[in-house]
Every structure is written in C-alpha cells, then in structure tokens.
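Example for tutorial group B:
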C-alpha cells in the first residue's frame, strides 16, 4: 500500500487516538469488565471521548455482532477488539475468509486487552500480529501481540495480507503453504471439513511413528 502525505498524517493522528484510548480504558478497567463484549463497549465509549476535538469526532461506530472489524472510524480505519482473562498476549482470531468484513475499511488495528496478571493493553496493525492458522470449524488466524516484525504468517507465506484476503479462494494458498511444510509421506487433514481445534494439520503415516 502506498501512503500519501495526507494518509501518513491521518495514520499518525489515528494512532494518537488509539494511544489515548488505551490510557483511558486502563484507567476505567475494573473487575466488572469480565467479557469480550463488555470490554469492547468500554473501548468504544473511551474512544468516543478521546475523539472529541479531533477529525474522528462523530465518525466512529460499532459494527454488528458478527461483523469485522468491531469499530469503524472515518469509513477507513478499523479496530478489532480482543480480550482475554489470561495473563498472555496470544489468542485465536478471526476467520481467514473474512466473509463478514466491512469492505470500505482499508486498514485494521488489533486492540488487545489482557486482564490476567497485571492488566494491560497493546495495539498494533492487524496483519503484524497474526503468526499462524488454527482450525476450529474453519481456519482462523492466531494472534500474538508480541510477534517480532517480519514473522507473521504473511511473511512466512511470502504474500501480503491484502493480497491473500482479496483472493477468490484464500484457503487454497494456505493449503499450498502448509503442504510445503509436510513431512515425508504425510498429508493434510484439515480445512474443508469441520473439526475440533488443532494446530497440527498433518496426518502422519503409522510406519513413521516412533
């Protein structure tokens, strides 16, 4: 993606909004905020307060329950809100198919609340914190808010996030990548059928077991 000077300026202002929202959410975070939905409402309310006096004022809205992302700003920026009660920065994310994506949103940030241990919040661009793909009833991204730059699933696949999501059948590219990582005589079992959660996509030949 090529940014103009105006785009860069708005990006800086948007990240300033996220910064202020983070600080305000942490000030208002208490034990009653014990679910993803409650956390999302708190984030949105704080973001509206922080948007006052900025170019984002009056241009924020929450999307429907199953839409992606959770918050849309200026019909361009998106915020996907995640919450965990655990003391970790990892979680399961959204479907790789993004069938419920708000298409006019061009750039999405992950806003991640960790309430286990010492409560904290981190945010970063969506594609930079997705390190792998897991299977529930369909393939979903895995989130790591501490993922080193250049180690996302898109870096590993040598394809950009936007390229992959705009493909007619992104799962085919994902299959191709994971097939390239299979052991000798092994095959994939996942993707097209429902299954329980797993990160191990290989069927291992019985004769290759220890």
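The residue assignment follows.
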């Amino acid at each position: 993606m090529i940014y103009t000077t105006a785009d860069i300026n708005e990006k800086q202002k948007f990240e300033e909004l996220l910064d202020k929202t983070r600080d305000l959410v942490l000030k208002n975070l208490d034990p009653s905020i014990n679910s993803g939905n409650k956390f999302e409402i708190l984030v949105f309310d704080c973001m509206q307060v922080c948007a006052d006096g900025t170019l984002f004022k009056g241009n924020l809205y929450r999307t429907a329950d199953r839409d992606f992302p959770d918050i849309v700003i200026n019909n361009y920026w998106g915020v996907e809100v995640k919450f965990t009660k655990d003391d970790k920065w990892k979680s399961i994310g959204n479907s790789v198919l993004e069938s419920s994506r708000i298409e006019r949103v061009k750039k999405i940030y992950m806003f991640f609340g960790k309430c286990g241990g010492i409560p904290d919040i981190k945010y970063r661009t969506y594609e930079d914190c997705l390190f792998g793909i897991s299977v529930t009833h369909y393939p979903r991204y895995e989130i790591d808010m501490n993922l080193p730059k250049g180690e996302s699933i898109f870096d590993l696949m040598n394809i950009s996030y936007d390229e992959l999501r705009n493909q007619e059948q992104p799962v085919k590219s994902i299959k191709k990548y994971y097939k390239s990582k299979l052991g000798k005589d092994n095959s994939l079992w996942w993707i097209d059928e429902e299954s329980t959660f797993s990160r191990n996509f290989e069927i291992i030949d019985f004769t290759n077991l220890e």
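Residues 1-6, 191-199 have pLDDT under 50 and may be disordered. Compare this with the pattern of hydrophobic and polar residues in the output above.
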